[in-house]
């Protein structure tokens, strides 16, 4: 009987101790405890950037295609690669067609000017409608109510005479951009025709509408097409889809030409939405940067100053800044407790030494370093803990010493200082001789 009593008592005590151990030491225990803090950092303010480094090539800012009918052509004057100035002769035309051609060009000028006026009216109505609350806009210039957000969908139906395609779900900004692009195209065509009318040569001539170079002359059965590029250059590079989503217009770019040993400030001008397939600039770009076996998309980069002294197709290094923050802090991504794209919580320690959950605002992610950049919620020097579960308002204690002394601090103290500390009696030199002896001893040690 006594044996069963002893065994039962031992089992009860063991169960009691085990239950208490579980209550005290399990991770989500309700019993108050002090936490030993091992993993922690002190955040520091700084400037952080996320960048994409790409090779780029110099290309013409645009290409003008000037079409000439064969039945009015007499002689082609220029060859591919030739430099031309505004008004230089590209071809001699049949003088018997002078009146007919000039009449056609006059008619084209009138048509282009009318189209520009119509497009301008549409553009004006779109801008007016965007600035009003609750407005919907149509191409006839009348606006009734809809919204002024960049994401508001606009009911835009442009008449066929203007010939602009705008999708049914177009926003104000996208519709305005389409109209502005069409106006630029029509103005370019108008300048070409006006250049022909401005020629005062005795012979009937077909002239260049810009300063630049004859890139190519395409010959068709009924037409000749002169491809003329201006001397001004811009930059293009090519990226995979994962980077395409991160790059936006107006992002800053730092460009550098190794040939000229010169840096250029630039910015992203735009990006293509269709994969690039048959493109000679892509082929040239592939000589400077290996292309993966994936669809590539064109990114246009506009320098802040002219690119002088470089041929078309020259290699330029570019660094595109896709995210940046000043006065922010960096944290490990896996130290967040709960998070979504823009917000999260982390454990921190208050000035009283207790644990708390702090909401933070995330500026952007840095997947390359598995970290996040915090815009708001933390102050410079604040202690942040890892994501191990801890109860709010629990007290904490740190390993000692909290901060290790530097080697320079250790060398600054002599053996007398350590001895004085050990015997709790600070050593103070009393005479000049003591001071001189101490200095001589330090010099000898050094």
Task: Break the fold down into its secondary structure elements and pairings.
Blueprint lengths: L1 H24 L9 E2 L3 E3 L3 E15 L3 E6 L3 E4 L6 E2 L4 E5 L4 H34 L4 E2 L5 E2 L27 H27 L6 E3 L4 E8 L3 E8 L2 E7 L1 H4 L7 E6 L4 E10 L8 H9 L8 E7 L11 E18 L10 E7 L5 E12 L4 E6 L6 E3 L10 E2 L9 H5 L3 H8 L9 H14 L1
Parallel strand pairs: 1-22
Antiparallel strand pairs: 2-21, 3-13, 3-17, 4-12, 5-7, 6-11, 7-10, 8-9, 11-12, 13-16, 14-15, 14-17, 15-16, 17-20, 18-19, 19-20
How does this model look, in words?
- The strands form six sheets. This protein has a six-stranded antiparallel beta barrel. A four-stranded antiparallel sheet has the order 4-12-11-6, with no helix packed on it.
- The protein is an alpha+beta fold and about 450 residues long.
- Helix 2 runs antiparallel to helix 3.
- The termini are far apart.
- The protein is elongated, with a radius of gyration of 37 Å.
- It is about 30% helix and about 30% strand.
- The chain has helices at about 1-25, 100-130, 170-200, 240-245, 280-290, 405-410, 415-420, 430-445, and strands spanning about 35, 40, 45-60, 65-70, 75, 85, 90-95, 135, 145, 205, 210-220, 225-230, 235-240, 250-255, 260-270, 295-305, 315-330, 345-350, 355-365, 370-375, 385, 395.
